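Lecture notes, part 5. Sequence design as translation. It can be helpful to think of inverse folding as translation between two languages: the language of shapes and the language of residues. The source text, in structure tokens, appears below.
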């Protein structure tokens, strides 16, 4: 039986309107949870040791698989959150296959 690899959604977000960003959180968090997403990093201090990375706010969410992460992102339930975030933040988002335990 093939073992699924965990997946991590990496998000670098620059919030342009903090009050409106709270609306995104209200819409997005329940959907992320419903798809089995688990926050591993949600903001906090970032220390760059090598390179010229620049993060405004780094978020890492773990899903059971890449497929599950895609289902979440492209779901009709998450679409309203995307509509909100596109207006009040700039972000980069990637899904990365991880290591299964």
């Amino acid at each position: 039986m093939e073992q699924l690899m965990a997946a991590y959604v990496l998000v670098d977000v620059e919030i342009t309107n903090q009050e409106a960003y709270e609306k995104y959180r209200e819409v997005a968090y329940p959907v992320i949870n419903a798809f089995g997403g688990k926050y591993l990093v949600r903001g906090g201090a970032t220390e760059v040791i090598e390179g010229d990375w620049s993060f405004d706010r780094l978020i890492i969410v773990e899903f059971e698989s890449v497929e599950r992460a895609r289902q979440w992102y492209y779901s009709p339930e998450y679409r309203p959150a995307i509509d909100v975030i596109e207006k009040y933040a700039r972000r980069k988002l990637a899904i990365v296959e991880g290591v299964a335990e």
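The translated text above is only one of many valid answers, since several sequences can fold into similar shapes. Strands lie at 7-15, 38-42, 58-63, 89-97.
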